[in-house]
Design brief:
By secondary structure, the chain is α/β, with parallel strands linked by helices. The chain has 12 helices and 11 strands. β3, α5 and β4 form a beta-alpha-beta unit. It binds glyceraldehyde-3-phosphate, 1,3-dihydroxyacetonephosphate and zinc ion. 1,3-dihydroxyacetonephosphate binds next to β3 and β11.
């Protein structure tokens, strides 16, 4: 069933676990995610980015998510806009079935971020939709979420309190050391997240926090991709123990996209290499779908949100 995140986040904060937010781009991804959450009996946030809308189109994506809600009526599904760029895209999503939107005003100066976020919150709340805001900048390179190395800045707890009080957002994405994509920490670095800052923000804002850029870039998948001809550069993601730990410091939503991409890519490369005679695309796509399911089940174990529906 489609729902907002309000009740799910309240339960997650109380139970000190987090809910997985997975990016949906096509049929195989959503099927893999839904089979994974069904197997684990976990609530789920299905999120759609600007890149996904460009790739698949917003109507196809909406219909896929409506289909998931119909096929899995027992699973609480939040239909979420990931990194909404401006008021217009948020309004369009609010008017078209989304139960949650993110307005990502983090690239704007503080006062502008507040004004934009507040405007989205007012419209969203009038329609029964919840809003995620963002304060602080994550570094990292993604198609539509692009902050150059060195240009990131961690979320300031005092500013976060002011931001939340002035905007009325329902949840807040924070910058505490994560970044988008497959290259988060150099191979030789010791990955670090600023959990003390996270705890301070949580104590001041008293709303659920969101961790973007939370993939772990699992090395087995990078190795498998590269063993079948890929050239994914050496790097590290966020260690999974840290993802589990984050929920102790007020994080209720954890965004994962890259790890699903890596799992699918590894599966497809293997399949093409091992079955060169095959031209039935359902075989590589079906195997990739199974790989998504396995990854999602694994992530649910890390997040602790299994059996929480
Ligand atoms: O936050 C970024 C997500 O991984 C979505 O990336 O814009 O390439 O779909 P995308
Ligand atoms: P990853 O690139 O670490 O998977 O992060 C995804 C994300 O934050 C989507 O908003
Ligand atoms: Zn993100």
């Amino acid at each position: 069933m489609l729902t907002t995140s309000t009740g799910l986040f309240a339960k997650a904060l109380a139970g000190k676990y987090a809910i997985g937010a997975f990016n949906v781009n096509n049929l195989e991804i959503i099927q893999g995610i839904m089979e994974g959450v069904k197997a684990k009996q976990a609530p789920v946030i299905l999120q759609v980015s600007a890149g996904a809308r460009q790739y698949a189109g917003s109507i196809f994506l909406r219909k896929l998510i409506e289909a998931a809600a119909e096929i899995y009526p027992e699973i609480p599904i939040v239909f979420h806009l990931d990194h909404g760029e401006d008021f217009e895209i948020c309004r369009d999503c609010i008017d078209n079935g989304f139960t949650s939107v993110m307005i990502d005003g983090s690239k704007h100066p503080f006062a502008e971020n507040i004004a934009l976020t507040k405007k989205v919150v007012e419209y969203a709340h009038s329609q029964g939709v919840v809003v995620e805001g963002e304060l602080g900048k994550l570094e990292g390179m993604e198609d539509d979420v692009n902050v150059a190395a060195g240009a990131g800045s961690y979320t300031d707890p005092e500013q976060a309190a002011e931001f939340v009080a002035k905007t009325g957002v329902d949840s807040l994405a924070v910058a505490i050391g994560t970044s988008h994509g497959a290259y988060k920490f150099p191979p030789e670095a010791e990955p670090k997240l600023d959990f003390e800052r996270c705890a301070q923000i949580s104590a001041k804002v008293k709303i659920p926090l969101v961790l973007h850029g939370a993939s772990s870039v699992l090395q087995d998948f990078v190795a498998e991709i590269n063993s079948y001809g890929g050239e994914v550069k050496d790097s590290q993601g966020v260690p999974e123990e840290m993802i589990t730990e984050a929920s102790k410091y007020g994080v209720a939503k954890v965004n994962i996209d890259t790890d699903i991409r890596l799992a699918m890519t590894a599966s497809m490369r293997k399949n093409f290499k091992e079955q060169p005679e095959n031209f039935d695309v359902r075989k590589p796509l079906g195997a990739a779908r199974d790989a998504v399911q396995k990854m999602v089940e694994h992530k649910i174990d890390i997040l602790g949100c299994g059996n929480k529906i």
